């Protein structure tokens, strides 16, 4: 039986040159992770079409800028060092890097292109970073399509596709997976058969009405989606394709960390299905969405965002570090809102908690019956009803995507 590994172990022993025939979903996650690196400040040539090789990124003086904004700087550094010395990755070219944050437009977008050979490129979209703007844009997906990052992703992929005749793989982790699907759908006519595969690693989904669009239906059979067994982010909104469930060494929402995903041989170690916890979260989100129309979702999300966007607080780290001293300011802002808005916020947040409690009660009752009964917790640990290979259940509300702007790439089929 092959030894179980993580991303770093995989890169340290995967020596075969990267090509279409040898490309795996694990390689996709490695390159998706690489798009998180903040290289442009120290390596401006990464923004050009010529780009730089991974071994040229091994500049110790630039490491603080590369890694400090990342969720796991130490393991990120170890992975880059492994890539820069690996015969599988060290000669890959990273090019066309872009990194944009626009607080006014509520957009956080970054992407990179990797030249895998003369006739093959991988386009990676970065997931949500630590900025509050990035998180706000994620929640905007519950009532709007496309959001600015999805439009930026569509434009980026169109430029790459227009500048090369190579075959194209597209992917991303977290929001990057969502952007990969959105960009591929928007450009499916331009790409045609050159679009080989679209990888979404624990990426959020879409409003149901978006998935019914012809351009999304056209690429569904080329989407490869993976989520960890207790996925939270990947269960956000709807998916139109089955997903593989990957074993993670962490618990709960921390399984979103790609370094926790277990690799077995040349692929991820997959399980039969999601844990009961993930299904509770999925059901709670779906029910909340079903109970609120798009206008209500927008009002709530905008109001909560207004509460936490305090001067000096621009990232989730700032919010976590200063929440105690900012409680008076948040309380003051809440009190200053008109009574109807304040009541709506409090009732909506209470409803989320009530829905979640209602959904978890049957599991708690089962757990009290002992491990020999039909405990939902025991089911989860054993794999339970498999969700793998099924469409992730979503809400049944009559949601409609927002009206795209005049320059939108979506809706062109």
From TrEMBL:
Residues spanning the signal sequence: none
Skewed-composition ranges (Low complexity): 376-385
Region (Disordered): 368-413
Record field: compositional bias (Polar residues): 394-413
Protein name: DUF2974 domain-containing protein
Organism listed in the record: Schaalia hyovaginalis
């Amino acid at each position: 039986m092959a030894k179980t590994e993580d991303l770093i172990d995989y890169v340290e022993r995967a020596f075969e040159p990267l090509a279409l025939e040898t490309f795996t979903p694990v390689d996709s996650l490695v390159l998706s992770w690489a798009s998180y690196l903040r290289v442009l400040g120290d390596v401006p040539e990464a923004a050009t079409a010529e780009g730089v090789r991974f071994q040229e990124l091994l500049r110790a003086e630039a490491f603080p800028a590369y890694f400090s904004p990342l969720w796991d700087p130490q393991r990120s550094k170890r992975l880059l060092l492994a890539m820069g010395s690996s015969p599988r990755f060290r000669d890959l070219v990273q090019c066309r890097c872009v990194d944009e944050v626009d607080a006014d437009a509520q957009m956080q977008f970054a992407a990179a292109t990797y030249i895998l050979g003369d006739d093959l490129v991988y386009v990676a979209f970065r997931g949500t970073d630590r900025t509050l703007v990035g998180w706000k844009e994620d929640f905007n997906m519950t009532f709007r399509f496309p959001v600015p990052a999805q439009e930026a992703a569509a434009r980026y992929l169109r430029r790459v596709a227009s500048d090369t005749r190579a075959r194209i793989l597209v992917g991303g982790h977290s929001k990057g997976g969502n952007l990969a699907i959105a960009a591929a759908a928007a450009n499916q006519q331009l790409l045609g058969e050159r679009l080989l595969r679209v990888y979404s690693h624990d990426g959020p989904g879409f409003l149901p009405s978006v998935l019914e669009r012809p351009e999304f239906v056209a690429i569904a059979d080329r989407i490869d989606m993976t989520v960890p067994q207790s996925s939270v982010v990947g269960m956000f909104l709807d998916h139109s394709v089955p997903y593989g469930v990957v074993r993670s060494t962490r618990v709960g929402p921390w399984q979103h960390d790609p370094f926790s995903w277990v690799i077995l041989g040349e692929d991820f170690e997959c399980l039969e299905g999601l844990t009961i916890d993930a299904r509770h979260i999925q059901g709670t989100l779906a029910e909340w969405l079903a109970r609120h129309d798009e206008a209500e979702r927008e009002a709530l999300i905008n109001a909560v965002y207004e509460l936490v966007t305090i001067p000096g607080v621009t990232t989730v780290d700032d919010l976590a570090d200063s929440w105690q001293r900012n409680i008076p300011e948040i309380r003051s802002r809440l009190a200053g809102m008109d009574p109807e808005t304040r009541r709506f916020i409090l009732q909506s947040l209470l409803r989320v908690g009530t829905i979640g409690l209602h959904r978890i009660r049957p599991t708690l009752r089962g757990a009290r019956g002992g491990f020999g009964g039909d405990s939902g917790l025991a089911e989860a640990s054993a794999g339970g009803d498999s969700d793998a290979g099924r469409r992730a259940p979503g809400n049944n509300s009559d949601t409609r995507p927002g009206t795209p702007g005049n320059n939108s790439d979506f809706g062109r089929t």
